Amino acid sequence: MVEQHEMSLAEWAPHCYRNGKLHQIVDPYLKGEITPECLKKFGEIAVNCLHDNGTQRPSMNDVVWGLELALQLQESAEKDVLQPQGEKSFDNKESDGLMSSMSEFSEIMNPQGR
To answer: Across residues 6-14, what is the average pLDDT?
Structure first.
């Protein structure tokens, strides 16, 4: 039987986020595809967007920024899997690996999707 808080994703997601169990709400087709860091960022964005007090919710600009960061976390992790340790290369030598000088951070350049 499904618990009451699991009936509404808007109630279930924050519950899972707070208890460190976001993996429970991931679509079965995505399990194993999304990195823990990316999932945590998505959860953070969702929970912030669900604040009861509208003034505590992020602006759309902040949401886009967060989603872009989540995408970059995912892409960075995927590159790490494909690229052996010690062979990492970034466009910007001072980069922490999350963004390159060519990134489209917080600006949607391709409205058709990625």
So the answer is: 84
